[in-house]
Amino acid sequence: MKIYPTSHLPGRKVLLNNGKEYLYFSGTDYLGMGHHYEFLTYLKEGISIYGTHFGSSRNNSLRLEVYEEAETALANFSGAPAALTTSSGMWAGQLLMKVLPKIITTDLQDKNFHTSNIHYHYAPRVHPALWGVEYISASSGWEDWAKDTILTIQESNVDCGHIICSDSVGSPFVESFDFSIFKTLPFYREIYLIVDDSHGLGVLGKNGGGIFRELSSIQQVKLIVSSSLNKALGIPSGVIFGNHDIIDTIRKSPFFAGASPAPPAYIYALNKLLESNTYPVAHQQLLDNINYIAGKLTETNLFVSTPDYPVFCSSNNKLFDFLEENGIMASCFSYPQPTDPPVTRIVISAIHQKEDLGQLAEVCMKF
């Protein structure tokens, strides 16, 4: 894999250290927050108030209210009852996986239940943030895995607990998942649906609020969603969404108490961006760009994509080199394992202009 060093944060374009400039169609800054004027303004305000970081546990006796304020705003944005921020999306997922047995046993404190009765069901290619000690990689397609999982749960003993783990959308090779299949799960069982929405929050759902609202209609499960905030929303932090009891249990965990929080200046900026409805505006700009380019890229028969989603994937590695030769920087690398086959990904951002999208389509049609 060739490396392209740069000393500049990419936006619509990226300038490499060798002096070459490219149109940039890569990364995960779906809403273009990296150079967003209002974001920068709010961040500067936050630094002037809170400094550069908060060297303390969130469970200390002195507490910065900005965290709870932003978490309330995030919960409203996503449609979740409650939210809890962490230092990263990876830690949000790993923290959740560490505390899940405690969440289940706390929920079942009046029942004769042991953690050995907890069974994990991992979707194919689920993000490493949700990998736990019971992780086993599924080799089937997502729908077949979901059907097998439902059958396994239906045939299991009623005293078993089940944890279903999946991404909200496939990555790096984009794929949409129909979670409504889980509405065929049995009622009155201990079933937790754990979803990593890192590539969905800010992109999927109403105003980019993510997948929580959609999944909350699955009444057979207790829903918990974790996510990075450092993709579409642009905040170096992570978040966990769930009901108040679940979030309270995580908040009391030593794994949360012993971890440093995200910088409060960024959390301040997040709260301001949510208050000002900045994200829904950028989300609409992203949808407009997707609708503008999707048909043109589909005509090339080069890409796999999903409706209203800003990622277009190809297994043809020669496409990446062709794009690079024609002034377009996409991405092509093995993920998450170094042995995984590389995927060429084109990512549309809210800040791309029509001329950028037109040039991208023109180059792809020449391939």
TrEMBL record:
* Alphabetical list of Gene3D superfamilies matching this protein: Aspartate Aminotransferase, domain 1 (3.90.1150.10), Type I PLP-dependent aspartate aminotransferase-like (Major domain) (3.40.640.10)
- UniProtKB keywords: Aminotransferase, Pyridoxal phosphate, Transferase
Query: Organism's domain of life?
Result: Bacteria
Cite the SUPFAM superfamilies for this sequence: PLP-dependent transferases (SSF53383)
Name a biological process GO annotation.
Answer: biotin biosynthetic process
Obligatory cofactor(s): pyridoxal 5'-phosphate
One MF term in GO for this entry?
transaminase activity
Q: Output the PANTHER family linked to this UniProt entry.
A: 8-AMINO-7-OXONONANOATE SYNTHASE, CLASS II AMINOTRANSFERASE/8-AMINO-7-OXONONANOATE SYNTHASE
Name of the molecule in the record: Pyridoxal phosphate-dependent aminotransferase family protein
